[in-house]
Amino acid sequence: MINQIPPIPGTIELTVDPALLQMVLGSLKMGSQAHFAIYASDDNLTQLVTKTHAAFIMAGYLFAMPGQSRPVPQGERLTGFYTQAGRPDLLFAAETLPDPSRVTTASALAPGMDAMSMQEILKQARGKKSAITIISAPNLLTRMLGGF
């Protein structure tokens, strides 16, 4: 799928191994209509999430987490879900990047990511403070819940 994620100021898109992309999208049952991307930023976690939220709202998306008006904490991460009629839904999880020398297991940057893949991502993000993983797909919530 063509990347339809609105640009997020101050971020760089990281290169993700195609095999990892297929595994992640396959595990989430997203198929070929989904797009998966990881971006890194010099901003701290709060600043990155604020800029992402603003970019999505300016692009015409609506924040769609019931009972919330802004991204919410989930453990050490901040998450958000956005919808817009006629466009793919957007789901993100953002986190502070760990010190690459301390990574022994994968993080939530990508479900199913092994420690070696995580090291490759962290090499690209060297010197950055935070990262955000974004999945874009039509009817994303329904797909992730498996039709429940």
Would you identify the regions where 5 or more consecutive residues have pLDDT less than 50? none
β-strand percent reads 25-35%
Average pLDDT number:
84
Question: Any idea what the radius of gyration is?
Answer: 15 Å
How many beta-strand segments?
7
SSE arrangement, N to C: EHEHEEEEHEH
Could you write a compact summary of the structure shown?
This protein has 4 helices and 7 strands, in the order βαβαββββαβα. The chain is α+β, with helices and mostly antiparallel strands.
Give a structural overview:
With 148 residues, this protein is an alpha+beta fold. It is built from four helices and seven strands. The mean pLDDT is 84. Strands 1, 2, 3, 4, 5, 6 and 7 form a seven-stranded antiparallel beta sheet that branches. The protein has helices at 18-27, 45-58, 115-124, 140-144; strands at residues 11-14, 35-41, 62-63, 72-74, 77-83, 89-96, 130-137. The two termini are 25 Å apart. Strand 5 and strand 6 form a beta hairpin.
Keywords, please?
seven-stranded antiparallel beta sheet, alpha+beta, 148 residues
Produce the secondary structure layout.
Blueprint: E1 11-14, H1 18-27, E2 35-41, H2 45-58, E3 62-63, E4 72-74, E5 77-83, E6 89-96, H3 115-124, E7 130-137, H4 140-144
